[in-house]
Amino acid sequence: MPRIYSARHPQPCAVALAAHDAARRIDGPLFSMTTNLSYVHPHADSPWGTYLAQVDRVTPYLGHLARWVETLKRPKRALVVDVPIEMDDGTVAHFEGYRVQHNLSRGPGKGGIRYHPDVTLEEVMALSAWMSIKNAAVNLPYGGAKGGVRVDPKRLSIKELERMTRRYTSEIGIVIGPQQDIPAPDVNTNPQIMAWMMDTYSMNVGATATGVVTGKPIHLGGSLGRVKATGRGVFVTGREAARRIGLALEGARVAVQGYGNVGSAAAELFAQAGAIVVAAQDHTGTITNSRGFDMADLSAHVKATGGVAGFRGAEPLDDESFWDVRCDILIPAALEGQLTAARAQRLHARLVLEGANGPTLPAADDILADRGVLVVPDVICNAGGVTVSYFEWVQDFSSFFWTEDEINVRLDKILIGALKKIWDTADHHRITLRTATFAVACERILAAREERGLYP
After folding, report:
1. Predicted TM-score (pTM) of this structure
2. Would you say the CATH fold of 229-381 matches that of 14-220?
3. Which of 195, 275, 423, 454 stands the most exposed, by the fewest C-beta atoms within 10 Å?
């Protein structure tokens, strides 16, 4: 019997086990979450609880499509897999992996794979749901999906990491494919891991399938512009939002939480536009300089040491004090649930650009709105990555590749157009950008659900 889990806790749930007979099984631990989730009441501040609260807020704006809203609260499919590998010392280790397809009404699933010791089924469910919203918000022909393995990849050798990736890919191979579900990099995954995934899937199906993943190395069908696409999207949407609220980028102070691929790329683009980056935080520590960092020196330091801590061009700061730094633009680009109600009360920024998925809790959203702080939500702000992933997928099918300039022009046009639609919706209903983004996206998803109908 496959393991069935509650949405709240990553351990067996008695109610869910009782519902096993109603769950659909396909050759392994693949099951529908539909029956289970009607019994689950996740904590409000959990990722899934945050997502459900966001759906509840948008429901009054869905008109007749609100009759389908339960579709958004129940992932279509969740796969939980055991990933056993032989370690370098000859022992056998087991890791738990997930792939969740939240909604496929508008097209194949699309969403990243993360390797992290705190990954849970509930987190992956929420991330897959936000991918549904994100893809619909920018009108990409995708549904939402997400995957992950509960592991600290830093504790694995390169060979162990490869074996784990290949075994995980084989285990989820029953649900992924170029026209079914297309993974991509996320936290602690990169082009090399995507290359292993693509190769493993290709070997299992007996043909090279470059379109099964995106975010691949360039010479294996990857796209130019993909590495910095998410950070570029944060900058483009942030630039448009700043213009609308009358915030000049020249001299604007920027604070970045999470100085990885997304945060660093966004920070560099804002600096090029004349802003000054005054604070940065990552897993190694927090640094600040009221006069701004030398971005080239900081980039070299991070590349050499693996983090911002110890950078000589800044002063160290305790992690919690990061939220007290005086800035005009805050970019939370780490993990979900970072911007709490208490931190929202202390924030000095005028503009919050969500580079991470789900960084702001619903209570914090309300506080920021009351304080007049504009939040550009994750589901549009960080959609640059999946947009260029879409470009990569299209290029793989046609075997015709674009220049980086062409990609950036197409990316900017899509994001600016999507944000305008969302802003017009927000103005019309007098609602926040987040609720407006969900209104636009959920209407598209549920219209597709209604027009496709129910089968059988």
Report:
1. 0.87
2. yes
3. 454
